[in-house]
Amino acid sequence: ALFTPEEKKTASLFDSNEFTFDTFVVGESNKMAYAAARAVADGASDHYNPLFIYGDSGLGKTHLIYAIAHQIRSTRPSSKIIYIKGDDFINEFIELVRAGRGSEFRAKYRDADLLLVDDVQFVAGKEQVQNEFFHTFNTLYESGNTTIAKNKSTASVFRRIHFTTCLPIKN
Prior knowledge:
7 helices, 14% strand, alpha/beta
């Protein structure tokens, strides 16, 4: 199958008008994250690559990453956009490595134009998966492609994954 059920659901959200920049409510607490997300969607990803957004639940982190994907899909429809949750990244990695198909995993994620990782905090502390994520990011970065991650925790989670550029969304 080309998409798992979760990927099909996410792809339809990228195509809907529900989570766009036009429907995002910008305020003092999220204006920097909004501006960075707009820049990434407009093609200035080299300034915000990787882009890591963190903050409490319900403040718009998911809305922003969907808005980025929506705009990129609208303006560059041939772009390969991959969205995955951190725990699904772990499970898929373990499953394919155990089956001797680690190269399939690498090919899938390292060929993306835009990689969106939701709840990336689950990757932190799992050494093999964390290393795979780091190498995937490096491959994408060196190819000029973008990685965006978000989580509910503080920036310390990102530092454990070897990254330091983080933009908060606050209450």
